[in-house]
Amino acid sequence: MKLPQSLKLPRSPLSGRALTAGAVAVATLMAGGSAAGAVSAAERPAAVADAPDIPVANVKAHLTQLQSIATANDGNRAHGRPGYQASLDYVRAELDAAGFTTSLQEFTASGSTGYNLIADWPGGDADQVVMSGAHLDSVTSGPGINDNGSGSSAVLETALAVARSGYQPTKHLRFAWWGAEELGLVGSSHYVDSLGSADREKISGYLNFDMIGSPNPGYFVYDDDPTIEKTFKDYFAGLGITTEIETEGDGRSDHAPFKNAGVPVGGLFSGADYRKTSAQAAEWGGTVGEPFDPCYHSSCDTTANVDDTALDRNSDAIAYAVWELSQ
Question: Catalytic amino acids?
């Protein structure tokens, strides 16, 4: 997530079915999380159209690959650096093997060539596109595993779950991995600017995921489009988890160019360098007075800097929303 300027624009409505969160089964937690452990498939609301559980082990395997790429490339995956290109190649190979139609969109930032990766799932109404995205670049000072390997990996695994299930939604599904977000939302801004007004109007919703595995996590939902917001809030309510409106990153990630162009947007966030309050710790656990991510934009943002429980819950919520909003 890049550092700056917040922008607050009016909400725009997105049509979609109302959802009902199902009953929650008592969960047996898997070992290995940095807090309470990974969430089992039982700890999920009944999902529409059989939206799948996203195995957190699969998401973490992608994070391990991104960490290895950073380690082999001067400790980062930043725009214009070899680590970004290797990250892009890894994600694209996974998508191509799963049957997606992928394309690269080229742009220039800070004197270097950058790339967005766009992946379309065949089928669905091309005049109604549900798009999910995350920035793939890190800062130069670290490997960027929570920021934003977490969002990138969860979006990738959700896309792969679409392919595994052979899901054929009413709407068209598109997934994106943005370059140069850390330099000022450059990649996503380029994408939105490259669309004509007719193509922008075809995007019925853009879902953004930037930092969803913070080690001292919160559960924040973007309060932009009301239907997308309700989809995520209902999901977490079905788990008995209280959410808060996302304010720390408002306008600071790749949803901002879409929102500015009038596209309905929404998303999830687990917190960056704001500090957890006592009220938040009472709701979510964790450490009062510490940042949600003490390694934000630092060299210690490694695979050790991720909370498995938050990563698992947020990954499942992504799949739930993609299935719900695309029917």
Answer: 181
